[in-house]
Amino acid sequence: MTRSPEDYVYTYILRCADGSYYAGITRGSLEDRVARHNAGNFGGYTASRRPVVLVWQQEFQRLTDAIAAERQVKGWSRAKKEALIRGDFDLLHTLARYRARAIRDERRCVLRGSTSSP
């Protein structure tokens, strides 16, 4: 069975003219979506940061999976996004472990009533 363009769902990252990153999702043509960002059709984040360039994409079969991936990426640090864009999965894993350890350490400080690092 042949898939139509509407069957494609993508999570993507754009690099904006100011160097920031924007993560989004789309159904259908990713090229059309990027063109619409560059045309200023969306009044949000990218409207004042054009032109934008597609730097990463992942295709999904289900919209819910694409939405989950977008939410995850939006919560990532710049370093993690750049590791993903480069395909540096070893660094991505290291950064995830570093973040998890930092959160645990911060929670310990809060539980002890301290605001300084352990």
List the helices and strands and how they pair.
Blueprint: E1 9-15, E2 21-27, H1 30-39, E3 53-60, H2 63-74, H3 78-86, H4 89-112
Antiparallel strand pairs: 1-2, 1-3
Can you offer a commentary on this structure?
This protein has 118 residues and is of the alpha+beta class. The chain folds into 2 domains: 1-74, 3-Layer(aba) Sandwich (GIY-YIG endonuclease), CATH 3.40.1440; 76-118, no CATH class. The chain contains 4 helices and 3 strands. Helix 3 (78-86) runs antiparallel to helix 4. The protein is globular. 19% of the residues are buried.
- The helix/strand class is alpha+beta
The CATH architecture of the largest domain would be 3-Layer(aba) Sandwich
Largest β-sheet summary = 3 strands, antiparallel
Number of domains: 2
Order of helices and strands: EEHEHHH
Return residue spans where pLDDT drops below 50 for at least 5 consecutive residues. none
- Rg measurement, Å: 18 Å
Number of helices: 4
